[in-house]
User: What shape does this take?
Amino acid sequence: MNRPLHEPLFFGAHERTLFGLLHSQPGPQRRAMVLCAPLLQEGIRSHRALWVLAESAAASGVASLCFDWYGTGDSAGEDTALSLAGMLADLDQARQTLALRAGTDRIEWLALRSAALPLLVHLAASSQPVELVLWDPQLSGTALVESWYEQHRAQMYGSGRYPHARHEPEPDELLGFAVDASLLGALRALDATQLQLPRGSHVRLLLWQADDDIVRFSHSQRMHGVTVETVLLEDLDRPGWEEPTQFGSQAYPRRSVARISQQWESAR
Assistant: This one.
């Protein structure tokens, strides 16, 4: 087996340049996948896990593109440029770029945590069945934003991060990022359990545990002709996403990543 190639690339319109890393084998690709990172701090924390998954997928013949949302990472734009409408445009641009580079229109998707929200909005508008993996998805925008504020308060005043001085954040600061209020408003309005994927789609849920939103989402999709498969991961392997003491640490659930990678291999 050839080792996957790693190609950093900038793509998209000049005024909205995105950065991505394409993992692929030499030659034509059987399949291709866009991997979507979660938002804010979890996007940084999960970088290694997504990189390893993209690498293993490429080794199994699935060309994989990880990219930074506009306004994040190495893509252009300031923090405050991150928006729901922008993320939907980014997803379309990533799909087009990967289809062109991989030479296939068969694009699959993977979203981790909060990335599920923009991805499901994007795919619900598709006219064709879609293939996607949702890893520990957050399906309630309201709950997501509230959890961010709770984590923010814990970091500011409860974690001991500033033992000798009281740090007063800027009005638009959230978890160390400048976040535009319109993004938070758009996310709060999202309830992905109410979104419907095209009939004939296939969803694989990778879960450490299922909550009520997951149950409602799964039931709704199945009622509309979508196949939903659930893969339970080892609960003890779940990163402490909400744990204040792990705020800046890498979230690399080794056993879960290995199990997901094995699925790429078995699907060859």
Observations:
- The first strand starts at residue 5 and ends at 11.
- The chain is about 35% helix and 20% strand.
- The helical segments are 41-45, 47-59, 84-102, 116-124, 141-158, 181-188, 212-223, 254-266.
